[in-house]
Design goal:
Blueprint lengths: L1 E10 L2 E11 L4 E5 L6 H8 L7 E6 L2 E2 L7 H7 E4 L11 H11 L5 H14 L15 H13 L5 E5 L7 H16 L4 E4 L3 H7 L2 E6 L2 E7 H6 L4 H11 L2
Parallel strand pairs: 3-8, 3-9, 6-7, 7-8
Antiparallel strand pairs: 1-2, 1-4, 4-5, 9-10
Length: 242
């Protein structure tokens, strides 16, 4: 579904990604973790062309992301993206946040888009809030709306960029519960997150990054049981013991 081959990226003379290579199969859930500044968010943004990269190749469902002929808005409409800070339109009602792209990009009728939007709000437990504005919801609720909005486009894969890091601890589980459900239904997912409980529960593989490189790419049980690299061992010892 997603093929990443020898991807490197620079900001000026500073290299943020170095020869990153991995594959994500259909229905696989991959968790990308690592210390701050390790390139995790940059890598996931390269997958749908939000960040350009200078070397290597990324192919999503047969479409080369870095090819100048690729129409990136069309590609992005097929890959759901959930950001750290929700990115909802504050001046639109919740239901309108879910229908706008369906109508403009997918060409659905307003009735069809509304029906789909309400169905997905119901799924994330927020149907009763359809006519509110984002500012009237808690952070956890807004992030669940953002997930529903991404799903409204019928994506072939979902990318999550630290979806719980801006939330109060009490709200984290309500977002993770929706993500766990998606994973169990077979959605292809690539998640940048520090939530190791989530990784242990649903990830098929864990990718550990440090200084812009993929240091470890291992099945979940192997990664948590006995990481091969000393850097991953240090990282896990710090986050699992507190």
């Amino acid at each position: 579904m997603i093929s990443i081959r020898q991807v490197s990226k620079w900001y000026g003379s500073f290299q943020v990604l170095g020869e990153c290579t991995t594959d994500i199969r259909k229905g696989e859930v991959i968790v990308v973790c690592g210390p701050s500044g390790s390139g995790k968010s940059t890598l996931i943004k390269c997958v749908n062309g939000l960040e350009p990269f200078q070397e290597g190749e990324i192919v999503v469902d047969g479409i080369p992301v870095g090819d100048p002929k690729t129409h990136l808005p069309t590609l992005r409409s097929r890959i759901g993206m959930v950001f750290q800070l929700f990115e909802l339109f504050p001046h639109l009602r919740i239901i309108d946040n879910l229908t706008l792209a369906q109508i403009k990009v997918l060409g659905r009728s307003r009735d069809e888009a509304n029906a789909k939007g309400l169905q997905l709000l119901d799924r994330v437990g927020l149907k009763a809030h359809a006519n509110k504005y984002p500012g009237e919801l808690s952070g956890g609720q807004q992030q669940r709306v953002a997930i529903a909005r991404a799903l409204s486009m019928d994506p072939i894969a979902m990318l999550f960029d630290e979806p719980t890091s801006a939330l109060d601890p009490e709200m984290i589980n309500e977002v993770l519960d929706v993500m766990v459900e998606l994973a169990q239904e077979g959605m292809t997912m690539m998640c940048v997150t520090h939530e190791m409980g989530f990784a242990r529960k649903v990830a098929h593989r864990v990718i550990f990054m440090d200084q812009g490189r993929i240091v470890e790419d291992a099945p979940k049980d192997e990664f948590f049981g006995k990481p091969r690299s000393q850097r991953a061992q240090q990282f896990l010892s710090k986050i699992l013991h507190h």
